Structures are given as C-alpha cells and as structure tokens.
C-alpha cells in the first residue's frame, strides 16, 4: 500500500463485541456460540453479544427478554466488570506504547492521534496493523481500527472494518479500513443520515419526513436550506459533517492515568483509627483533583508499607466512576480494614485510576439500580462547597469530620458485585 499522507493520522480502535469476547476468551467452550452479556433479570438489557448472537438479530441495548425470544439457545451471562476493566487497562497500555494522544470512549474504544509516532512507527496504516497485532498478542482479543483524517471518519471506518452477522451467518471483517481524504465524499454519501455524529433520532426523523435519507442528499443542500429545516447551529454542524468536515481534536492525556496521595509516618503507626483519618484526608484531596479535571475514577487502591518495608496494595473497582471524597474514602477504608497491622505501618497511600469523564454510563446499560452513584452524587454538593472554600482560603481551611457515618456504600457495593460476578467482591492484589 502506498504511504498514507501525514494528515491521515486519526485512528478509532474498537474492540469487537468486547464483553462477550472476554467471556469467550475465558471459556473457550463458548467459541462460535451465541453469547449474550447483560442484565439477566426481567428488566435486564443486553450490554454486548457475540456475532453468532447478532446473526439472530440480537444487538446491544436490546431488552434481554426480547433477546432471549430471538435467540433461545443463547448463553446468557451476567457481566464481570473487574475482568473487563483489567483487559481494558491492558489495551490502553498498548495505546500508550504508540501515542500519548489517546481519548478513551468507554472501556472498549478510543481515538488515537498517531501523527507524532509517524517517524518512529510508520504511517497511520502501519500503526493500525501494529496495534491490532499487539492487542491480539497481549489480550487474545480482536480489535478493529478505522483510519482517517478526522475522528468522525475514523469512527465510521472502524465500523466498516467490523465482522457482519446476518441470518446467513457471520462474515469476518477487514479489521482495518482506511479512508483517504479524496475518498471521504464517496464513503459518506450513501450512508444514512443517522450514521453521522450528532444526528439523533429526532433530527433524523425530521429530515426523513422531507425526503432526506442519505448523507449525500443532505450534502447537496444549500446551508441556508438546511438551517431553515433544523435551525441555525444544528444546520451549520450538519452541513460541515455531511461534507466530512470534522475539526474535533483527539483530547489526549487521560488514558491509564492515576492520581495518588501517600504519607510516611514519623514513627510507625499501630492505630487503625489514625490510618482511617489519614486516608480520609487523602481521599478528599484526590476528589478535589478529580473534580478540578472533571474526571471520575472507577478504581481505588490503597498501598501500605509495613515497618519491615514489605508492601501490600489492595484495589477495588466500582462499576461506576466516583469523584466524591466520601465515596472514595469508604472504598479505601473498606480495603484498609481487611489488612492486618502486623508490626506497624510506615507508609499509607490512596490512589485512584480508571479515570474517565464518562463514568456511570457503561453500567447503566445493564439496567442496574443507580444507588451507589447516588451515594457519590449526594456528597458532591458538599465537596463542591469544600472546593470553593479551599480555593479561597487554602487547603488547610476545611478539615474532615471524623467517623462520618457510613451512607451504605459498602452494602451497595456488595450487592452490585454479586450481580456482576462471583469474584468481584474479593479485592484483587494490585
Ligand atoms: Mg466495541
């Protein structure tokens, strides 16, 4: 293949049927079978399914009742969020080998700007090949990669690269699709309008009612005509993207980052109450940092170094992103209470990782109760007030009340973990 021009540097990497593929990876007897992951109860929703299930018409976000009707032979499994998170972290490590400009979209997809890696790794097509191979080697899972000069084109291209499923069976995809600048128009024109970014069902309905079904039909309109149909701002946006003009940059620097706080004691600490107090303050500071960056954290880790210097870490991953100090503290303290004091503790620290700004959405797919999130958000107003006071008077101005009563996060966590899988409740060694 001829060398790709430098402006074609945006990749959209999307794991194939991610949650369902992980289940097959961990249980090869499921290979080739219809497998559905999601809420298994009456009100459950399909979170992911294998292509063999898609051949029956099952798709994600469909009700589980409907999915079972369409595919009575499907193996239906509850999600194992910790495992998905673990593999997602590995995939993001691979991204980090290529570029810092990574913009994660949920657990299983991301945009990468690979422009800066060109000299080191080759053009965007070669980097796409490299990424697919590395992801396969490191995780055993398949990813598709779309390549273009904008995020929108890259995303549409990765979709084109996917396997397809119909009643006739499953057809493997190309794995990588590159859209060159001169081919964008031909690529876009036949697509349905709703394939474009920012075109929701309401707007699509409105356009279809006046006979506009394809991107090409919209692209042929005058800007003013389009604006008279859907409004000034929406018209301008749709006009631009229907011509392939998407300037939205890859916002990098968030993948796989963690924030941490730690403290070494002047003399070894033998008092769990004091340790709780220390991590409560650490959790507060982490929460302030998260809120300042508009991020949420799914994983909370505590690190303990004993008097003899041996070190232990314990992590717990939530199905939703946290950013309230109280919620982070409650998770950290639960982990702390499970550790022995032994001969005393010389250092304790809390860190948060699994950072994203799309926190709660992933698991909402499962049709789960949102109570743990409520615990987090109920503290958020308090935390925001604390941030404001600290900004004005300095960080020492507001301390923490000790022994603040548990608001039930532990119970909710337990309940959620039971719903998502058997192993999630035991903290993993970090
Ligand atoms: Mg995917």
List keywords for this structure.
five-stranded mixed beta sheet, alpha+beta, disordered C terminus, Dna Ligase, domain 1, five-stranded antiparallel beta sheet, Alpha-Beta Plaits, globular, DNA polymerase, domain 1, binds magnesium ion, 3 domains, 42% helix, 430 residues
Unreliable residue runs = 358-373, 394-430
CATH class of the largest domain: Alpha Beta
CATH superfamily placement of the largest domain: Reverse transcriptase/Diguanylate cyclase domain
Strands of the widest sheet, in order across it, are 5-6-1-7-10
What is the helical fraction, as a range of percent? 40-55%
Strand content: 15-25%
User: How big is the Rg?
Assistant: 24 Å
Label the overall shape: globular
- Tally of strands: 15
The description of the largest β-sheet is:
5 strands, mixed
Determine the CATH topology of the largest domain.
Alpha-Beta Plaits
Number of helices: 17
CATH architecture of the largest domain: 2-Layer Sandwich
């Amino acid at each position: 293949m001829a060398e790709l021009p430098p402006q074609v540097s945006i990749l959209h990497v999307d794991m194939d049927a991610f949650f369902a593929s992980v289940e097959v990876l961990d249980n090869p007897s499921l290979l080739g079978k219809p497998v559905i992951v999601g809420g298994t109860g009456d009100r459950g929703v399909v979170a992911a399914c294998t292509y063999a299930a898609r051949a029956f018409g099952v798709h994600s976000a469909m009700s589980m009742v409907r999915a079972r009707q369409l595919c009575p032979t499907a193996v239906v499994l509850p999600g194992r969020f910790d495992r998905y998170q673990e593999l997602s972290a590995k995939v993001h490590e691979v991204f980090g080998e290529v570029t810092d400009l990574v913009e994660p979209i949920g657990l299983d997809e991301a945009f990468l700007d690979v422009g800066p890696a060109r000299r080191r790794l080759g053009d965007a097509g070669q980097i796409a090949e490299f990424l697919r191979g590395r992801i396969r080697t490191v995780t055993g899972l398949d990813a598709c990669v779309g390549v273009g000069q904008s995020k929108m084109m890259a995303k549409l291209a990765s979709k084109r690269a996917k396997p397809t499923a119909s009643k006739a069976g499953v057809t493997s995809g190309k794995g990588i699709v590159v859209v060159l600048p001169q081919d964008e128009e031909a690529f876009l024109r036949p697509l349905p309008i709703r394939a474009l970014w920012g075109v929701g069902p309401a707007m699509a309905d409105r356009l279809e009612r006046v006979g506009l079904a394809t991107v090409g039909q919209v692209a042929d309109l005058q800007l003013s005509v389009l604006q008279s149909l859907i409004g000034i701002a929406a018209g301008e946006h749709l006009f631009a993207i229907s011509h392939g003009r998407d300037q939205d940059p890859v916002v990098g620097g968030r993948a796989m980052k963690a924030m941490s706080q730690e403290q070494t004691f002047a003399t070894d600490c033998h008092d769990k109450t004091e340790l709780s107090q220390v991590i409560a303050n650490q959790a507060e500071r982490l929460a302030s940092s998260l809120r300042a960056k508009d991020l949420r954290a799914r994983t909370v880790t505590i690190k303990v170094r004993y008097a003899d210097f041996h070190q232990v870490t314990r992590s717990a991953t939530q199905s939703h992103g946290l950013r309230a100090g109280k919620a982070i503290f409650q998770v950290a303290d639960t982990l702390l209470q499970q550790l022995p004091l032994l001969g005393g503790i010389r250092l304790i620290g809390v860190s948060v990782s699994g950072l994203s700004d799309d926190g709660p959405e992933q698991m909402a797919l499962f049709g789960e109760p949102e109570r743990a999130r409520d615990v987090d958000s109920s503290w958020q107003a308090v935390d925001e007030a604390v941030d404001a006071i600290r900004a004005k008077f300095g960080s020492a101005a507001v301390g923490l009340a000790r022994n603040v009563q548990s608001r039930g996060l532990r119970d909710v966590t337990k309940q959620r973990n039971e719903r998502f899988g058997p192993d999630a409740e035991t903290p993993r060694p970090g």
